[in-house]
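Model: Ready when you are.
Researcher: Fold this.
Model:
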Amino acid sequence: MAKRCAICGKEPQYGHHVSHAKNRVNRRYGPGDRGRTPRSRARLHPLPAHLRRLSDSSFLSFGVIAFLLTLGIQYGLFQRLLQRPLLTHDVAQMRPAVGRWLKVVLLWQVVVVVASAGYVGVLASQHPRGIAWIAPAIAAVFGTAIPLQVAVVAILRASRGS
């Protein structure tokens, strides 16, 4: 085992293994030893907790970033593909524009939901404490849902005007 961990800088510590009869035997505790058997000590120790886990505020911050990113992309798709044809109130222009927009938005929704499910699947297997770790996935899904409502209201308004 290495004398010093290259990641966290932990060094081996020395002490005694004390038996029930109070016999003391010299013992070396390497970084990452958690009462394992001597055969399993040869494995590398896992990353320390401060490098392995993010705080709840980090997950919430990532959730805000995911929400704003997906909101911006979804609203950008609305602006680029749908807004101009809806302003014309011409059914001949609106119908194909709505069809194109629906295809692109459904593809984007599938990408976001699959990415969110993959994220939840990976982090759920590690059993992080608390529930803040799910914030980015929920925020990404909500970030795509809110502009959909704005677009549906715009489509309904445009269809009434024609």
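Researcher: Now this one.
Model:
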Amino acid sequence: MTEMLLLGAGASVDAGVPGSYSMSSEILERVLDETHRRVITLVMGGLLFQLGASGANPFEAGIDVESLFRAVQLLAERQKSEASPFVNSWNYFVDDLDRPQLQPGMMAEFFQSLGGAITGGQFSGYLATRELTRLIEQRLPRSGGGTVFRDTNEAMIDVLRDIVWINEADRVEYLSPLLRLLNTQKRLVIATLNYDNSIELLAKAYRLHCDTAIENWLQTGNLEHNGDGLFLLKLHGSIDWEMISRQTSIDRPIPHSVIRRRSPEKMARRHELRQKLLRADLTPEDVVRTEEDLKDEEYRPALIFGHANKLTPEGPFLDKLRAFRRELANADTLSIIGYSFRDAHVNEYLTQWLHADSRNRIRIINGPKFEQNHSNYARLLLTHVRQRIEIIPAYARDALSGLWKD
């Protein structure tokens, strides 16, 4: 018997990482800029309205973080959408938020400088400021071309990095029973939809090499892992992977994207600086210095959000889906932990795998109420292949402790 593992957001909840639905609220809480908060609130309200219009209870269904990110990204690129020529006008609040605006104080500062130059002194430019601001803003474009939504997306990613990065190995100890499988099979493949570093941290704590095959992909374009040991397939990317676009070399002259893994030390340094900025006792000088230090630690994470983005040609993500399908074909048992069955591509591969061999089996660990799961695909599994599914009605920490014992 060969067993493979698939991890969803619920697998990391016991490590202190919010689930995919509570993650949306956590991001809203942590984003500090008021405009960005207004954007997130608007998008969340729209998604809840959509759920209600479809007949779902929006308070039960909630907003998963991938839908939140994808909606913000779609609004940022809405003018480039194929449907854009057929849209007479977008929601008023969308265009209003995205409309360029003069920053508070800019005009007052201008008139103060102008008055000083003309009269050699200071004068109040309140009325002139108000009228000139109104005149300029009337002539500004009605839309900023998605700028405020792109900025909000970046702010959300900043917060996401703080939320999903795990520093302490004891937070992931409850996942250690997964490694027992290496006692019965020489090769263990773990596919994960999560951005966090829980499995890498666990492997390091147990002095095991955890191969993500990213280095091999950079050199050969393949995501193959042919040896024994622990192979980790991060289907949606990783918070410590840096995406660098438009790279060229002598051997690869056409501009392309590369991914580099940032060291745990760099990740810890960035986390430390972000936490420092939240302290109330910092002087203005400390804030400026910390922000300057933080700029040196910024990077673009290699992550994908939303169903359509999973087919992006940039980066290794299509290769990851192919590798997932290939590895799944070599297994006869799939243990699924904390996955809500809402990824259409993963679900399609599960269907193909179940159809390929009637002996293939699934074990599901997703809390005590999994059979009340609202996912259409989960209901299909329970209706048509229930006899091939083992359901453990517990969350990851409790369920894993009793599995794969000698």
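Researcher: Key takeaway?
Model: The longest strand covers residues 237-247.
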